[in-house]
Amino acid sequence: MADLGEVLQSLPYGDVFAAHPLLLLALVALCFAMVGGAMRNSVPAVGGMLRGLGSFGLVAVLVLTVIDLVRLNPDLALPQLGVPEQIVDGEETHIPLARDGHYWIEAEVNGHPTRFLVDTGASLTAISPETAQAAGIEANEVLGTVRLETANGSAPAQLTSIDTLETGTIAARDLRAVIAPTMNGMNVLGMNFLSKLEKWSVEDGTLILVPHQPRVPRAIS
């Protein structure tokens, strides 16, 4: 039996709908609302029900879109969505699991405060063009480009280097990274950052980072 992704791809513009299922939901909800509006006079009960379903669907799309934007754009994060505060415990930095099921780190990139999603499946750290510009980071033309595999397919990214990335008791220097314009403004900490630590682990839903040479942390504004 074909899964939902295969069904979507079999439709006209199926690749677009498969990559953006909320778009398909919005179109379906809009059709329900329009059909319901057209039937209000001839079949009021059915027309009203269809219009109500369409309106509900459009509201659901709006809510899901806002949640997705907040998840992928840390600067838009709302306090009520629950990104917990990281804790410094002696020489360790503790990051509690957020409500979205991810670990988010508050850090400074070349002194610029920003937020990173920790991704153990990523080999390299990735920053958005906005973060790169704010932190004074430019692409390294000598290093060239790489291709990143994202949910929307393969996309080019420019190689660069971060002078300093600081968070909690950790200071990583000369950290290789990529400037990724296709990640919707999100920054990702990859394994090349975690490999610079003395050790890291996950205990009871908390990510624990232990550096080789702890630094004295300062508040990130």
Report on the architecture of this protein.
The protein is α+β, with helices and mostly antiparallel strands. The protein is built from six helices and eleven strands. The strands form two sheets. Strands 3, 4, 5, 6, 7, 8 and 9 form a seven-stranded mixed β-sheet that branches.
Q: How would the global form be characterised?
A: elongated
Q: What is the beta-strand fraction?
A: 25-35%
SS class: alpha+beta
H/E order of the elements? HHHHEEEEEHEEEEHEE
Oligomer designation: single chain
Cα distance spanning the termini: 52 Å
Number of strands: 11
Task: Please give the radius of gyration in angstroms.
Answer: 22 Å
Please count the helical segments.
6
Low-confidence stretches: 1-5, 74-80
Offer a quick outline of the entry:
Helix content is about 30%, strand content about 30%. It has about 220 residues and is of the alpha+beta class. Helix 3 (about 20-40) packs antiparallel against helix 4 (about 45-70).
Detail the topology: elements first, then pairings:
Blueprint: H1 4-10, H2 14-19, H3 21-38, H4 44-72, E1 87-89, E2 92-96, E3 104-109, E4 112-118, E5 125-127, H5 129-134, E6 145-150, E7 153-167, E8 170-179, E9 188-189, H6 191-194, E10 199-203, E11 206-210
Parallel strand pairs: 4-9, 5-8
Antiparallel strand pairs: 1-2, 2-11, 3-4, 3-7, 6-7, 7-8, 10-11
Helix pairs in contact: 3-4
